[in-house]
Specification:
CATH superfamily of the largest domain: Acid Proteases
Pfam families: Asp
Family: Belongs to the peptidase A1 family.
Helix content: under 10%
Protein name: Type I transmembrane sorting receptor
GO molecular function: aspartic-type endopeptidase activity
CATH topology of the largest domain: Cathepsin D, subunit A, domain 1
Strand order of the largest sheet: 5-4-20-21-6
Number of strands: 21
Strand content: 35-45%
Order of helices and strands: EEEHHEEEEEEEEHEEEEEEEEHEE
Largest sheet: 5 strands, antiparallel
Structural class: mainly beta
Distance between the termini: 43 Å
Keywords: Aspartyl protease, Hydrolase, Membrane, Protease, Receptor, Transmembrane
Amino acid sequence: MSGASWSIQYADGSGSSGTVGTDTVTIGGTTVKGQAVEIANKASSQFVSGANDGLVGLSFSSINTVQPTQQKTFFDNAQASLDQPLFAAYLPFQATGAYDFGATDSSRYTGEISYTSVDNSNGWWEFPSTSYKVGSKAFTSPGYTAIADTGTTLILMGDEQVANYYKSVPGSKLDNTQGGYVFPCSTTLPSLTVAIGDGGDAVIPAKYLNFAPADNTGTSCFGSLQPSGNGQQNIYGDTFFNAFYGVFDASGPSFGFAATA
């Protein structure tokens, strides 16, 4: 695309920029011809050293950074060819995951899918999230929203919310060297419950909230819940999707969730 360029910066400080081309892109059985593809001329070390070839953005096209003419995402371009204008994320804990385009797969979840309306005015799959629980202890968080984002690894919440969680974790501390909250690996963690708009509560079991060992001894562990630094905007990343099958439905739009099978 002659004269087209792009640049993006992420919350963790990583970023990349470059030029734009077009190609036929196929993901599973879904194909888009003439899809704009951002070609990186500059990239942070995180991208250069990683095993992945790139990223597929699945937020709304309104936050695409291509200039001078904004381009549509793969999902937006694919919608006309799908049975339903949706995709779903199946990211089970320590197992092979999948994305479904155009339909949900009932073998990937249990129970019924609960839905909430989405505010896409900022380009994200965003909804109110105004209460939470640490174990059985309930808290309110008026004015808070959350973004469902499979491009984020952890669950990121407000400083006070995260501090309230770790008050219930014996031996936990905010370790600036590690970049977040750590705790003794032998500690029993409480569950975390978050409100998903008007779709009800999502209970994240404790087993998903221990992300990984924080040191070589295996005695200190890094939490899957960490501060977002985004004020009243939480991010429910892959840790959330370890526990829940997530449905991103462009009709509405809406976000749905059901316990992972």
